[in-house]
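FAQ

Q: What does a record look like?
A: Structure on top, sequence underneath. For example:
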């Protein structure tokens, strides 16, 4: 990992590594809430999703960022191009009498190498958008929006930490670009195996202890869904009710939390792209008490598919730490990991999370961390 991008409460920051030192090489959208940053390695484009409050949601693209040798000196007005943000079709309704309007862009993914120009954006209030021209235009995925569970009178899609249901995770099967899985808070995991034409819930084995029926087909709250690139049938999720792993492409889920340990509640999760048994989480105390467990920041790693968890804290604050990590703020690349916190600290590990370097403090709250290395 030699470059990384941060989406923060006060803009986007692109960091560059020189040995063990990291520095900010580009800073743009000062004062804007940047919810998601994503670099598409196929095109080299860098994307930024903004929530400008009163001025609404915006989408920007830096064409060919990976090939831009002058990215450090580039001015925002010269390189960032504003694109039309995804828009809900006229007549779409969150529920009867409430029109659907884009409130937040919360997930970003690029398609396979066979899908030139394809990108996905997941949004609040629960809509998925797809583009086949690198974001110049978007199509609303009606098949997902029209799924009967969304407005089911017993377990409708609903807001968790946000006012409405929201899509925060999009996983494209690298073996089969017709197969897509998404994570919705609060509804659960949904999958399509026919190129977005139809969808079905994939939540068998999950728990929703906050509902009268803790094992519904729909109504779960995954916090983040990730897929192992080399073993795509292995998926992980940090869920409101624990940590879960699937080894059959999401058909069945097993709880792999520590029954009496800290590896349980949290928001972020990462899986090794070459070994689906290896995953990392950063625990928090609870949804109502979003601080580090016992006021000590730790990172937990499993090397055996969740049977056991190791706890690492070298270099992390261990006294009166009231910080925690949002769902898109942990990134792994090779031996390196990086995470940013809600209180504006940034940490980097070069030994798979066993020790950490404090590389920045007093940043704005960090909403996403994304590696932008070309490989």
């Amino acid at each position: 990992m030699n470059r990384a991008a941060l989406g923060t409460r006060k803009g986007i920051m692109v960091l560059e590594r020189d040995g063990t030192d990291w520095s900010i090489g580009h800073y743009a959208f000062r004062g804007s809430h940047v919810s998601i940053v994503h670099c598409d390695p196929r095109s080299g484009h860098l994307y930024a999703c903004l929530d400008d409050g009163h001025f609404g949601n915006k989408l920007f693209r830096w064409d060919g960022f990976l090939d831009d040798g002058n990215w450090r000196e580039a001015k925002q007005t010269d390189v960032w191009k504003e694109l039309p943000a995804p828009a809900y079709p006229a007549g779409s309704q969150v529920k009867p009498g409430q029109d659907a309007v884009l409130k937040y862009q919360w997930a970003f993914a690029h398609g396979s190498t066979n899908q030139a120009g394809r990108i996905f954006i997941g949004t609040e209030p629960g809509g998925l958008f797809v583009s086949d021209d690198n974001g110049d235009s978007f199509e609303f995925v009606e098949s997902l929006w029209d799924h009967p569970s969304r407005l089911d009178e017993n377990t409708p899609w609903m807001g968790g930490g946000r006012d409405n249901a929201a899509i925060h995770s999009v996983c494209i099967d690298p073996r089969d670009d017709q197969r897509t899985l998404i994570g919705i808070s609060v509804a659960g995991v949904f999958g399509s195996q026919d190129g977005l034409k139809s969808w079905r819930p994939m939540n068998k084995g999950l728990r929703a202890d906050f509902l009268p029926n803790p094992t519904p087909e729909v109504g779960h709250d995954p916090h983040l869904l990730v897929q192992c690139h080399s073993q795509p049938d292995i998926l992980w999720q940090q869920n409101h009710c624990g940590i879960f792993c699937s080894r059959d492409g999401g058909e069945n889920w097993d709880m792999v939390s520590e029954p009496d340990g800290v590896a349980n509640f949290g928001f972020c999760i990462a899986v090794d792209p070459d070994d689906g048994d290896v995953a990392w989480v950063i625990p928090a105390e609870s949804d109502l008490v979003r601080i580090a467990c016992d006021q000590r920041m730790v990172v937990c790693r499993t090397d055996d598919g969740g049977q056991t968890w190791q706890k690492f804290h070298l270099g992390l604050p261990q006294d009166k730490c009231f910080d925690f990590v949002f769902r898109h703020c942990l990134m792994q690349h090779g031996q390196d990991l990086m995470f940013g916190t809600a209180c504006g600290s940034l940490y980097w590990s070069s030994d798979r999370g066993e020790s950490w370097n404090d590389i920045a403090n007093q940043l704005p709250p960090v909403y996403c961390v994304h590696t932008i290395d070309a490989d």
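Q: Is there anything notable about this one?
A: The radius of gyration is 19 Å.
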